[in-house]
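ok so I'm stuck.
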Amino acid sequence: MTTSLGSITFTRIINLGRKPVSQITDRAKRYRAQQNVKGPKKCVVCGSTKNLDVMHLSGDESDGESKNLAYGCRRCNAALGAAFKKIGSKIRTRQYNPASGVPTFEQYAWAVAHHERESHDEGGAIIHATPKHKRVEYARRIAEIKGTRRGEVPF
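replied:
not stuck anymore, here's the structure
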């Protein structure tokens, strides 16, 4: 939006709070896709209305434009994904599965102490690499330690 005040022109850039696709996680891409999909809630391939997901028609899951999205049942969506994989087409979703295994309690505690919200830092990577059941277990251990050391930082 541009506003003129005499000889001075102000240009205001409106930020809707959305990061560019290149800076968001695959989970966030899927969430955005669910908001952008248009059309009837039925599989575009077989017409089923059960077990619907968002299907990326081009196979490129970073393309969240409405024209690339449609509803698809899990069976058809998986078949389409397998077909794209077989021909080596486009970018598939990369789930975050750490190659080094599950972080230890010590690594998780360090990450919790050093991670800053909204920053893509090492602490955040460790937290996200920890499966939910382990995060719950580690959070309970941290709470127990905090309870026995009133006023001290447990790490």
